[in-house]
Write a structure and sequence with these properties.
By secondary structure, the chain is mainly alpha-helical. It is 81% helix and 0% strand. The radius of gyration is 19 Å and the shape is elongated. The two termini are 30 Å apart.
């Protein structure tokens, strides 16, 4: 359930974009009516409307995530606050300049920010953030935790670079294909990485169960 909660803005972004893409005239009318005051020049083309609406919904969905957690008395982790900051800035630039390139940079900036946070905590403060997140589920030797931390740093950097390749080379000029990759490709890679890492750590998990 937490994974679906974390994916909530991405899923809504995808749904709104696809609906807007399939109903461009209606999407254009909505964008002009409700977002005209936020857009430089006050107007967008019908082709730009789906990404504008999807971006606005993505921002609102991330805000709602935080509001929900606060209302339930739960802690809002730093990564969610960081995600809000990045999508507000890059999404805001996307809407104001009606330029989809800004929102395409958003995943890369977010992945790099995650990687930098892990690296600074590891090297500067001798704190393994992934250990803090995962230690309740699994106990590992200190050297293994260090490898886990660096593996996540490498994975986030890989995802950051891959997003740029997909957005601006492989799917250049094809926003619809990039939106598909954003939900299915990037999420699939995340699942694959978690499965591979779980298999690699299974030895220690088994030893813990046998102890």
């Amino acid at each position: 359930m937490k994974f679906l909660f974390d994916l909530f803005p991405v899923i809504l972004f995808f749904i709104v974009f696809k609906l807007g893409e399939g109903h461009q005239e209606a999407a254009h009318a909505l964008a002009v009516q409700y977002m005209g005051g936020l857009i430089a020049g006050g107007n967008v083309s019908p082709e730009q409307a789906p990404i504008m609406l999807a971006t606005a919904v993505g921002i609102v969905a991330t805000v709602l995530q935080i509001v929900y957690l606060i209302a339930r008395g739960r802690k809002v982790d730093g990564m969610l606050w960081l995600s809000l900051g990045v999508i507000v800035v890059m999404g805001g630039l996307t809407i104001y300049f009606h330029d989809e390139n800004f929102i395409k940079w958003k995943p890369t900036i977010l992945y790099l920010a995650f990687a930098l946070a892990l690296l600074v905590a590891q090297l500067g403060f001798r704190t393994n953030l992934m250990r803090k997140v995962m230690e309740e589920q699994v106990k590992l030797p200190d050297p293994v935790w260090t490898r886990v931390g660096y593996s996540w740093i490498g994975f986030f950097v890989f995802q950051a670079l891959l997003n740029l390749v997909m957005a601006f080379i492989v799917f250049k000029g094809n926003t619809s294909a990039w939106v598909n990759y954003k939900l299915f490709g990037a999420t699939g890679l995340f699942f694959a990485f978690v499965v591979i890492q779980t298999l690699m750590l299974s030895k220690y998990i088994q030893e813990q169960e046998d102890a």
